Amino acid sequence: MVKIAWGRWAFWSSVIMGSGYGLMVGLTPSDEELYNKLSPDLKRKVDHNRKEREKMEAMSAKERAV
């Protein structure tokens, strides 16, 4: 039967998972940072899509209210 050092295993597992989470949080840009890096043409497309989505949401909310 193999003896496993559970304390050491738990420590290193936590270190690995914590490192992964830290890298994810540190390297993932926020929505605003990502938007600011877009080219002007893509910004126009994003703005257009946001306006269309807002219109659709307003229409669906209006239909639900009726």
Describe the 3D structure.
It is a single chain. By secondary structure, the chain is mostly helical. The chain has one domain (6-65). Helices cover 82% and strands 0% of the residues. The chain is built from 3 helices and no strands. The chain is elongated and about 65 Å long.
Short description, anyone?
The protein has 66 residues and is mainly α. The protein has one domain.
List the helices and strands and how they pair.
Elements: H1 6-27, H2 31-36, H3 40-65
Oligomerization: single chain
- Following the backbone from N to C, one meets helices and strands in this order, namely HHH
Distance between the termini: 69 Å
Q: How many DSSP helices? A: 3
Overall 3D geometry? elongated
Q: What is the residue-mean pLDDT, rounded to a whole number?
A: 94
- Please report the total strand number as a whole number: 0
Which stretches of 5+ consecutive residues score pLDDT under 50?
none
Main sheet characteristics: none
Beta-strand proportion: under 5%
How large is the radius of gyration?
A: 23 Å
- Counting structural domains, the number is 1
What helical percentage do the residues reach? over 70%
**Secondary-structure-derived class:** mainly alpha
Function: Essential for the assembly of ubiquinol-cytochrome c reductase. It has a direct effect on the correct occurrence of the Rieske protein, core 4, core 5 and apocytochrome b.
Keywords: Chaperone, Membrane, Mitochondrion, Mitochondrion inner membrane, Transmembrane, Transmembrane helix
Region (Disordered): 46-66
GO cellular component, one term: mitochondrial inner membrane
